[in-house]
Structure formats: C-alpha cells, structure tokens
Write the structure tokens for this entry.
Amino acid sequence: MKKVLTYGTFDLFHEGHYNLLKRAKNQGEYLIVGVTTENYDKTRGKLNVQDSLMKRIEAVKATKLADEIIIEEFEGQKIQDILKYNIDKFVIGSDWRGKFDYLKEYCDVIYLERTKGISSTDLRAKKNNILKLGIVGCGRIANRFIPESKYVSGINVEGVFSLNEAKTKIFQEKFELEFMEINYDKFLEKVDAVYIASPHKTHFEYAKKALESGKHVLCEKPITMELKKAKELYDIAFKNGLVLLEAIKTAFSPGFIHLINIAKSGIIGEIKDIDATFTKLSVGNLRELDKNQDGGSVTELGTYPLLAIIKLLGKPKDIKFYSYKKDEIDLYTRIFLEYPNAIASAKVGLGVKSEGELIISGTKGYIYVPAPWWKTEYFEVRFENQSFNKKYFYKFEEDGLRYEISEFLELINRNSIETYKLTSKESLIICEIIEKFREQF
Ligand code: C2G
C-alpha cells in the first residue's frame, strides 16, 4: 500500500486546498494529512490564520479524502512523521518547489502544481473571502513580494500588470499566477486590491485609477513625490471607504512597533534627539541612480529614517538638507530636523556607506538599535547606571513584507481605513519632506 503524506494550514479552506488533497490522494492508496497548530504557524512566520485548529481539521475531514489526520507541531517533524508512518511519497504544492528536497533522503518528494486563481464563490461564506490581489509591476520588489504573500493567510496574488508584455509573461509563469495584463482597466476588473510596485513616477496614476475603481491600494514608497498628489490619493480613498497604505515594511513589523511604544513610554525620559541612518551602496545601471527615474538617496531610502523620527516627534518645525552630489543625484544626504523641544538627523546614502543604526536619546537614558534597525530584531535601553540596562528581542521574518501585507488585509477585513502603525498623516509628513528636498536640490 502506497502511503502519501501532505501538510498545510488549511485556513479558510478553499478549492486550492481541495484540489491539492484530491491529487495527493491519487498519488497512492492511503493519505495522511498534517494540519499545523497555531503555535507552529507562529514560529514559521505565518500570519493572519483565522480559523481555529479544530475548524481547519473539520474542513479537511469534510473532504473525505484524508484517511488519517495528524497535527504538525514543530520544525523538523516532517522527517519524523515520514519514518514513523512509513511514507512513500511526500506531496506539497508547487509554491514550495525546492524547499522540501531535503526529504528526498527519506521518500519521494512531489510538488503538485498549485491552483492559480482562487474563486470567491468557493466553499466559504462571503465574509472574509480570500482577497484577490493584483500586482502592478514586475521588478525586484514585486519578485520579493509573492513569496512573502504566501505567509499571509486570506490573500491570493491572482495576476500581474505591467506595460512590458514579455517581462510580464515571464513573471506570471514564474509565480504561476492566474493571469497577466498589459491593459490596466482589464487588470483592475479582475482584482479586489492592488499592490503597486512600479517605478516611483507611476505610483500616482495607477493608485488613483485603482481607488477610483473601488480597489484597495497597497503602494510602494514613496507613495508620490508631491504632497498635493498624495493628499489627493488619501482623499479619494477616504471618500470611497478604501484602504490606501504606504508599504513601509518597518512600520508594521513587531519589533519596531514595540520599539516605538517603549520609546514613547517615558522610560528614557523626554526624547531630545534621534539619529537614524540607512545606507545601501548601489553601483551600476540602476533605477536608484537614474535622475530621470527620480533616483537618489532621499527618494530611495529617506522613508525609513524619516519614519522613525516622525513616529516619535511628529512634524518638524524646520528642516535642512546637506548632500554629496554626483551626476545630478544625491549619493549621500544628511537631513537635520528641528522641533520645539528636540532635534533629529537622518543620514541616507547610495554612494557612501555608514553604520545603519538608530539612537533615540532622552533625558534619562537612550535606546540603541543596531544595524539593520529597519528590520528590528533587537534593541537595548541604556542608562547611566548600566545595571538598569534592558535588552529586547523580536523576530523579523525573512524579507518582512508579510507584515505590511497582513496589516493591509486586516484593515480591509475590519472595514477600517486607518492604522496607528502608519497613519495617513505620518505618510503625508514624510511625503512633504521628500518634496521639500526635491525642490531645494
Ligand atoms: N495550495 C495549492 N493551491 C493554492 C493554495 C494552496 O495547491 N492556491 C496547497 C499548498 O501548496 C499546500 C496546501 O495547499 O500544499 C496547503 O496550503 P496552506 O494551507 O497554505 O499551507 P502551507 O502554508 O502551504 O503549509 O508544514 C506546512 C506546510 O509546509 C505547508
């Protein structure tokens, strides 16, 4: 008797799950299905799982395809289960291709093609249907976005839009998406929400059209380069009751959120100075270094340090920029921000490397966040008397885009349009500063 084993969370049970189980069953005579626990999902960085373990087991049971259901509780359990249950074939969807090759030592490993589009008229009630997302653009960040989206339950990337037909086709095939479009109107008709990952200059037009068509928008930073345009986008979103979220991953990550709360708690007294640095040496024929594509250190990297400063001190009273320029691009810029009772500075560089740390100084102590602070995993609250120092640890999973995706989805499901993690007001202050820099440059 050929024994087959597969695993999954099986949250919001849908036709993709059903198809997988059916084909897994056909691979042998006896199918064992492992359902993940909440705790295991948490440790592997899966966010937003909505159904309880019991409900997810019941959903698998209801298919009548599983001969046995087991629980997956910990990392490394798969090898143990294969040996324990004498498994002949390990089966999993093609979104995991390559990831489970290490099991080939124990049994056959088969990746079955995943179900591409997920219909919203599937096995579930209408509420909290799986959100159909479309991606605008197929560049570097779009490539990183899809693997991260797999870790957020309740969202499915259905298709991709870009103007370059050949590139879009390659992207669609690579990620096994339901569709590709080079016509934006047709693309919008097929999705509930969009993630805009196209060049900076195009954000406004794509976001505006999506919002006017009633679609929620997750937009790469900077949302636009002009305050007036950013305001217009938020106005349309608010008027239509839609979510418009700027995709600043740091703002939604657990470590950074706690850092901000701790800094605001008064533990270091009154905040008097913030020093935030982000540099990323870039060489070659890159968009970041192209004046015609709005390249430069501030437009490319400024959002991160400004986020930390603005979350803690708000809108500055005055602001000054000092840059090292080459070929009409700022390869390094220091931004000084003045507040009535505090000061701050941000350093960003594409052509100058510096220590990527964040220091928040107060009247009673300071917080030190080592590089890369924008992927906050660790920080320390330090005092004159070192015996009071405290260390904090968090997890920042892989690329960390899953946190913004999860927040975006939750806002939509909760019918709210604002999140304290990144308010429209904060996003607009960042936009205004970038605009000011560009005017003075
Ligand atoms: N699946 C699919 N088509 C989809 C969605 C999912 O074929 N559109 C497959 C997945 O590839 C997986 C199974 O359905 O084989 C369960 O998917 P999830 O519930 O998303 O679970 P997953 O996070 O893939 O967990 O240890 C857990 C496993 O590593 C897989």
The domain at 254-395 is CATH 3.30.360.10 (Dihydrodipicolinate Reductase; domain 2). Residues 120-127 have pLDDT under 50 and may be disordered.
